[in-house]
Amino acid sequence: MTTPSHQSDQIIRAARQSLSVQRAGGRRLAPQGAVRIRRGHLGRKLRNIALAVGGIWLGLTAIGWILSGIGLGGLALGALATGFAVWAFGKYPEMKMPSLSDLNPAQADVKTMVGRTELWLESQRRALPPPAVKLVDTIGLQLDVLGDQLIHVDQNHPKAMEVRKLVGEHLPGLIDGYQKIPEHLRYEDNPGGSPNTRFLDGLSTISGEIDSLTRQLAAGAIDNLAISTRYLDYKYGEALHDSEKAL
Predict the structure, then answer these.
(1) Please, how many CA atoms are within 13 Å of residue 68, restricted to the half-sphere of its CB?
(2) Which of 165, 141, 143 is nearest to 217 (CA)?
(3) Whole domain around residue 63: which residue ranges?
(4) Are 146 and 210 in contact, with CB atoms under 8 Å apart?
(5) Which residue in 115, 119, 114 sits closest to 96, CA to CA?
(6) How many domains does the chain have?
(7) Residue 185 in contact with residue 195, Cβ under 8 Å?
(8) pLDDT digits over 84-121, tens only?
(9) 105 in a domain, yes or no?
(10) Are 149 and 99 in contact (CB under 8 A)?
(11) Integer Cα distance of 96 and 201 in angstroms
């Protein structure tokens, strides 16, 4: 059963998501971990195109130097080969969307796994009900923050291991389990609530846990900042106060 406090947490998270969307001009913010993976794939395609086109024209130049020119036929052949290279390397290799097995917590570093999970979540949006899509979008944005924090965390740190289990196992397992339930059974009431309600509650729980992990990982930096500001205030604040008195 959904408690009032649980509902309020969902409302707060939805409000934060809405604010983020409004700041983006009304557009849905794509998780940056997934964006980075897509950009990396595009970058490799552009590199392959540049190498192929460069190789084509370098080869034609060498042939022209040996034969004292390649003529219009050679230029036409070069243009045709360039067009084919751009098409072929622009289309292939196609980007492989992560599968459940690719999200295995033991197969990659934590940050890479978080990025893969974001990409996998994007591929699942169409198969989810609208309330779940909003929660998944919120989780994706939360994973962005968590992924950036994990850069500075040792892979064997207990919190890193906890993230592995949550993001690489529990979250995708929850979504995969929901999708295996036939559509007409998802809204049937059961003693513990309908599968749809349980699914939304599960996503909310995971969202709250990611927020908790983010706060725990940030706790040390927050404490260090507080110590630094207190030290600066102690060291320079009194001196500034005394100089103001002298004036």
Answers:
(1) 0
(2) 143
(3) 37-91
(4) yes
(5) 119
(6) 2
(7) yes
(8) 888 888 888 777 777 777 777 666 677 777 878 888 88
(9) yes
(10) no
(11) 30
